[in-house]
Amino acid sequence: QVQLVESGGGLVQAGGSLRLSCAVSGSMLSINAMGWYRQAPGKQRELVATITSGGRTKYADSVKGRFTCSRDNAKNVVYLQMNSLKPEDTAVYYCNAEITAIATIPVEGDYWGQGTQVTVSS
Q1: Which of 122, 120, 69 is nearest to 96 (CA)?
Q2: Cross-sheet strand order for the sheet of 77-82
Q3: Which of 6, 16, 103, 115 is the most buried (most CB within 10 A)?
Q4: Cβ-contact 109, 9 below 8 angstroms
Q5: What are the backbone dihedrals phi and psi of residue 65, each rounded to the nearest 5 degrees, phi first?
């Protein structure tokens, strides 16, 4: 059974920092890319950052220079360090993982965490 669990969200003042973590649980997983998405109330879910298995990252223009995504492949954990937070960063942040195989069985699909709330006060 595969589960993604985010943590690290909370309330922070503008200009502050938070670090989100996402742990992928399950045995014998083959994980390709991972990413972070966010969704504010009444708005479309948007991509924040992606990271390949080799550690190459891409970011949305709105967070470049402020957010840093990293991963620990040995632990199957992906992180999102968020600095210089702005009120417009307020959203539920979701972790995503592209899992290509479970044990010896090929699979195709994205797995999602339950989300963690980030609220930035002005």
Answers
A1: 69
A2: 3-7, 18-25, 77-82, 67-72
A3: 6
A4: no
A5: 85, -10
Q: Residue type for 98, please? A: E
What are the two backbone dihedrals, phi and then psi, of residue 97, each rounded to the nearest 5 degrees?
-140, 135
The token pair at 68 is: 């840093």
Rounded CA separation 75/92 (Å): 24
pLDDT along the chain (122 residues), means of 10: 94 98 91 96 96 96 98 94 98 96 87 97 95
Rounded distance, CA 76 to CA 82, Å?
20
pLDDT at 72: 94
d(CA 112, CA 50): 14
Q: Which two tokens stand for residue 67?
A: 């957010």
CB within 8 A of 73, min separation 6: which ones?
31, 53
Supply the pLDDT for residue 109: 86
DSSP three-state, residue 91: strand
Among 30, 1, 15, CA closest to 98? 30
Q: What is the DSSP-derived secondary structure letter of residue 51?
A: E
